[in-house]
Amino acid sequence: MAIQIKYDGGVYEINGLLNAQNGESLRNHIEVIMKQSKGLVLSLNKVLDIDSNAVKIISDLHRKASLCDTLFYIIGRENQRVKELFSALNYNDILL
User: Fold this and answer.
1) Integer Cα distance of 77 and 64 in angstroms
2) How far apart are CA 36 and CA 91, in angstroms?
3) DSSP at 38
4) How far apart are the first and last CA of the chain?
5) How far is 64 from 71, CA to CA, in rounded Å?
6) pLDDT of residue 89
7) Please, which contacts does 77-82 make with residues 24 or more away whose CB atoms are closer than 8 Å?
8) Would you say 29 and 61 are in contact if contact means Cβ atoms under 8 Å apart?
9) Please, are residues 86 and 94 in contact by the beta-carbon 8 Å criterion?
């Protein structure tokens, strides 16, 4: 299943299943945005399911943003599956 990325009011909202396969597509999309912007907000609240590969990709993007002095906020604590997986992989400190 493909993911949908919707831009609404300054927030890029991810809808669908986020996994290793479509995570690379997300990486490419976010990297382009980071080159054009000084900051972005990514919402994972509407992600139906996520795997550890996708969490790693998002973590890598967060690290890259900080190295480039780009603000990168990841919203997703309202999504129990996202919250649990970020916590299990010790990435809960980047999740808002």
Assistant:
1) 22
2) 26
3) S
4) 26
5) 10
6) 97
7) 78/45, 79/44, 79/45, 79/46, 79/47, 81/47, 81/49, 81/50, 82/44, 82/45, 82/47, 82/50
8) no
9) yes
Distance CA 89, CA 96 (A): 15
Section 18-29 average pLDDT: 93
How far apart, in whole angstroms, are the C-alpha atoms of residue 73 and residue 41?
A: 5
3-state DSSP call for residue 44?
coil
Q: What is the pTM of this model?
A: 0.93
Write down the pLDDT at residue 1.
63
Q: What one-character-per-residue DSSP string does 58-92 give?
A: HHHHHHHHHHTT-EEEEE-TTSHHHHHHHHHTT-G
| Dihedral in degrees, nearest 10, Cα atoms 40, 44, 46, 48 | 140
